[in-house]
Amino acid sequence: MDARALLRNGLLDQNPGFVQLLGLCPLLAMSNSVANALGLGLATLAVLVASNAIASLAGPWLPREVRLAVFVLVIASAVTAVELSMSAWWPGLHASLGIFLPLIVTNCLVLARAESFASREPLPRALLDGLAMGLGFLLALLALGACRELLGRGSLGADLGLLFGGSHAGGGWQVFPESRGLLIALLPPGAFVLLGLMLALGNARAATRRRATTATQPSAVPGSAA
User: Fold this and answer.
1) What is the pLDDT of residues 113-124, one digit of tens each?
2) Is 150 exposed, middle or buried (CB count within 10 Å of its CB: 0-12, 13-18, 19+)?
3) Sequence-distant (≥ 6) Cβ neighbours of residue 85 within 8 angstroms
4) 55: closest CA among 154, 129, 106, 160?
5) What is the mean pLDDT of the chain?
6) Is the residue at 121 inside a domain?
7) Measuring CA to CA, how many Å separate 119 from each of 10, 13, 87, 113, 186?
8) Would 221 be classed as within a structural domain?
């Protein structure tokens, strides 16, 4: 795949959240607001890019027996660096993300990309794949987080102040009063329902495109082939 195909693969065709359904635990747990979704998505993106880069450089030199162990150690080191940086510069967001920030180590998306792709590709392609997959996961988090925050609290980006080093909520837009929100949208059942609706919508659009493509293709003329 060329660079454009790699980007499309991570953002659309093989989106980690909506197509591959990887990392569903943080996707459902930390998508209750735009701020949490953005923070966890950026952290996962940074870990993906760093681990893919190291896997591309070190992968060809590692024996197969120790490759996975080394990749897990690399991912854990990258997650530790990201967590310490977030704790220093964004303490409010770090506290809000809680245990799900160090649990990026167990996200099968990060290890899968390092082992199945980055370790077999040159550095530029590995970096681009990590960027594309990280952005795809970030977009999935943001889409679900925006829907849940809007339905549950009537706001969009109400806690974005956490991203600027503050410890309190602030900013964003209040679309309607929070008292009129749907509490279930902020709870795990609401996350499951909204994700299911998004997947159903995506599958319906894909099926419509396939039918349209089939309808525009010229049909074979009977008896034209010997």
Assistant:
1) 998 899 999 999
2) buried
3) none
4) 129
5) 86
6) yes
7) 17, 22, 30, 8, 39
8) no
